[in-house]
Structures are given as structure tokens and as C-alpha cells.
Design a protein that fits this description.
The protein is an alpha/beta fold. The chain contains ten helices and eleven strands. The structure holds guanine.
Length: 295
């Protein structure tokens, strides 16, 4: 079997066009242009690329974006003061602190400082709590991107066994939460899964992943999942972005797994572009909420 490629880039372009139309409508109705501010501490090269891509895409859909930089030698209080100023600035609708912060910084203290109304990553405790209760203010960007991809390829999840490999706060945990909910943000078909979460201490990983109808991998280890981990006909979503000598690869060994899966995301061009599209959606939602406009 040769798997169908799930083209995240094409889906992201479609979603960007939808957002651009909504931004125009919102601007015409209110005179407000949604504004995202990215905060980058230090000079992590991967973070530089991610932030640049987020800003470029913002401009493409008619939003404004600004980058605030601090050196890794800055004191945490300087970052907290900057966040305080952005929280109070009515021209700023979304705030994104790019992670990871330099070694030794207290990530939770920083995320706690972002106003929940402007927390477009949905990383702060209030927004995480709302997601868990099934009444999100903002949807987490990468998990929402995965749901959009499944929905737009008509891949039903309801009643299926979804196995999530990875338990990060950014992807694995919130994605498991969304997949198991009764009513999903993109409809009931992409919800109601039976969800298993695997992690570094899972025994006999392949035995568990082989049970997956939908296998989603977010562990940050290049080419870790092989065809031995995958049931014939499974749908495989690869969230990994790993830089190795030969270029960028995912957490899934694409060549090996595409011989057994029914559908698979490529890396690059799979989930990555969707994460950015969903961040822009959240920024537009934030601008609407802050200006009394409902979606
Ligand atoms: N680092 C890796 N992924 C993300 C993300 O989605 N948002 C932020 N702010 N930092 C990240």
C-alpha cells in the first residue's frame, strides 16, 4: 500500500484565505487591524525561523505583527515588565512568547504573566483549564491544526482508537484532550475518539501504537516511528520537526511508514503550516473579542 499524502500546506493556504477574508470584513466593520506581538528571548536559531514565518504569514492575511527581542542575558523581570506593557496596550491583540526560553528561565512564571485575553498560544493556566472543560477561549494551535487537517480530508475519528505518542503541554496533552471530547471544535466527527497517550516510559510502545486507527506522533525524535509501529491502513500524523544532517525530517520514518499507512503527513509541509494558520485564527478571534465582535 502507498499512503495518501495529507497536504498540510495546501490546507493551510485554504485556511489563510478564509482568515484573510474575515480580517478584511472585521477591519471594514471596526477600523481595527488585528495585531500580534511575538516575544523572542535569546537567539535560538530554530525559534528565529519560527517567529519570522509567523510574522510573514500574519502580514499575508492583512494583520500586523511586531517582534520584541530581549537578549538571553536579560533579567526575567525585564520580560515580565515587557509582557505587562503589552497586556495594557489596546493596539496589541495577541501576545506570543516563543518557547523554549533560555535555560534557567521559569517558563510557567512567564506564561502566567500573559493576559488570558491575549494568550493566543493558549498556554496559560486559564486557557488550558477552559480547553479541558470543553469551552475554549482559544484552541491550542498545533492540536487545532491536526483536527482541521483530519476534518478537511474527511477522516473520521469518532469511535476510533487514536494513539498520541508524546505528552507535551504544547501538543500531546491538549491534543488528547480535544480528540476525546464529545463535541469537537471542527464537528462531532473529529471528536469522540478512544484516546491512548504514550510517552518515554511506555512499555512495548509498538504493541500500543499498532492498535491505532489514527496515530499522532509528537516526541521530537527524528524518524523514531517505523512501519513495525503501525497497523496496516492507519492514518499517521507526524508533528515532529527535526533538523538532521540531511535536512528536516519528522518523528516518523516517512519511507518506511508510508508503505503501510493509508494516509500520512509529510515533513515539511504537513502539520507545521497549520500551526501558524491556527495562530492567526486565534489572533483574529482575540481582536474580535477585545472589540466586542462575535465570530
Ligand atoms: N515553541 C514550539 N512550538 C511553539 C508554539 O506553538 N508556540 C510558541 N510560543 N513557542 C513554541
Amino acid at each position: 500500500m502507498s499512503a495518501m499524502i495529507l497536504d498540510g500546506k495546501a490546507v493551510a493556504l485554504q485556511i489563510q484565505a478564509e482568515i484573510a477574508a474575515e480580517v478584511t470584513q472585521f477591519r471594514q466593520a471596526t477600523g481595527v487591524v488585528p495585531c500580534l506581538v511575538a516575544v523572542l528571548v535569546g537567539d535560538n536559531p530554530a525559534s528565529e525561523v519560527y517567529v519570522r514565518n509567523k510574522q510573514k504569514t500574519c502580514e499575508k492575511v492583512g494583520m500586523t505583527s511586531r517582534l520584541e527581542r530581549l537578549p538571553s542575558s536579560a533579567r526575567p523581570e525585564e520580560l515580565l515588565q515587557l509582557i505587562g506593557r503589552l497586556n495594557a496596550d489596546v493596539s496589541v491583540h495577541g501576545i506570543l512568547v516563543q518557547l523554549p526560553l533560555p535555560t534557567g528561565w521559569d517558563t510557567n512564571q512567564v506564561l502566567d504573566a500573559v493576559s488570558p485575553a491575549k494568550d493566543v498560544d493558549a498556554f496559560g493556566p486559564e486557557n488550558v483549564g477552559l480547553i479541558c472543560q470543553g469551552r475554549p477561549r482559544f484552541l491550542p494551535c498545533t492540536p487545532h491544526g491536526v483536527l482541521q487537517l483530519l476534518a478537511r480530508y474527511n477522516i473520521e475519528v469518532s469511535g476510533k482508537h487514536a494513539v498520541v505518542v508524546g505528552r507535551s503541554d504544547i501538543v500531546g496533552k491538549p491534543l488528547a484532550m480535544l480528540l476525546m471530547q464529545r463535541t469537537g471544535p471542527v464537528g462531532d466527527k473529529v471528536a469522540n475518539a478512544t484516546v491512548t497517550v504514550c510517552h518515554s516510559q511506555t512499555k512495548n510502545l509498538a504493541e500500543v501504537t499498532q492498535q491505532a486507527d489514527i496515530l499522532i506522533v509528537a516526541i521530537g525524535r527524528a524518524n523514531a516511528i517505523k512501519k513495525e509501529h503501525v497497523k496496516a491502513g492507519a492514518v499517521v500524523i507526524d508533528v515532529g520537526i527535526n533538523r538532521i544532517d540531511t535536512g528536516i525530517v519528522g518523528d516518523v520514518d516517512f519511507e518506511s511508514v508510508s508503505s503501510v499507512a493509508s494516509a500520512i503527513t509529510p515533513v515539511p509541509g504537513g502539520v507545521g503550516p497549520l500551526t501558524i494558520a491556527m495562530l492567526l485564527k486565534n489572533t483574529l478571534t482575540a481582536a474580535m473579542q477585545q472589540n466586542g465582535v462575535s465570530r
